[in-house]
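Researcher: Next sequence.
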Amino acid sequence: MTSPTRANAPNPANTLNPADATPPATSDAPVLRTLTVLAGRDKSGRAEHADVTFRPGEVTALLGPTGSGKSRFLYDIESLADADTPSGRRILLDDAAPDADRRFALQGRLVAQLTQNMNFVLDMRALPFIRMHAESRAVPDPDATARAVLAAANDLAGEPFADDAQLTQLSGGQSRALMIADAALLSWSPVLLIDEIENAGVDKRRALDLLLRSDKIVVIATHDPVLALSADRRLVFEHGAVRSVLHRTTEEARLLARVAAMEDQLSDIRARLRRGMPVA
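Model: Next structure:
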C-alpha cells in the first residue's frame, strides 16, 4: 500500500482549547497542497463549467437547488473519482492522478466526510472514545487532546454534554458537534466535506471558525446565506454540474455583516424561547 506524504512539525496537544485550538499534527499526518476536480459533464452530457482547484485553509460553499448535483460533487471528491462516476469527473492530488492504492486506502484517508444523518454504532462514553482516537494518532498527550476536542464540541452544541455521556445517547446536534470538533482537531484527513452544517442544532459560525483554523480543505454544501457568504468562494450547481464559480465581493462582505447581525438577533430570540423566557 502506498504511504501518503508526511508532515514534519508536531504541535503540543496540551495547548488545545476551544478558543485557539489547532490540529495536533503528528509525523504520520498526510499533507496535501492542492486537490483539483477536473470538469466532467452535466445530466445531459454537456461539458461542465471548468476545473476547480482547492487549497488548504480555504472554505468553499456548494449552492444550488436540491438535486442540482452538490452531493454528487462531494461524492466524487470523497471517492477520488477517476472518470468512473456518472459525472465523468477526475480528481488530481497535487496535480497527479492518485493510484489505486491511494484511492482505496483505509489507513491515512485523505478525505473525511460529515453527512446530514449521523449515528454511532459503537456504544461507549465520549471521552474514552475520543481518547482512543487520539491514541491511534500517536499525539503527545491523548487525554489532553481528547478533552480539548470535547470542549470544542460543547462550544458548538446547543446543549452541552458530559465527558462520560454515552455516544448513543447524544442528540443529533451533539453527535455532529463532536464529529466536527474531532475532524477539525484530531483527524489526519486534509480534506473535509460537510453536507449542510447548518442542520442539527450546531452553532454553524463557530463551527466554521473552528474548521478555518484547522488549515484543511473544507467544502460545504449549504442552503444557508451566512455560510455561503462566509466562504472564500461559491460553486453554483445546475443540472448536475458546476455552472459558475463566484468569489465574495466587497458589497457582499458588507451584506454578510448585516445578515449575521440579523441572525444573532434571531438566535438570541430562539435561545430565550427555549429557556421559557419572555422575548418581548
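Model: The longest strand covers residues 241-247. The radius of gyration is 19 Å.
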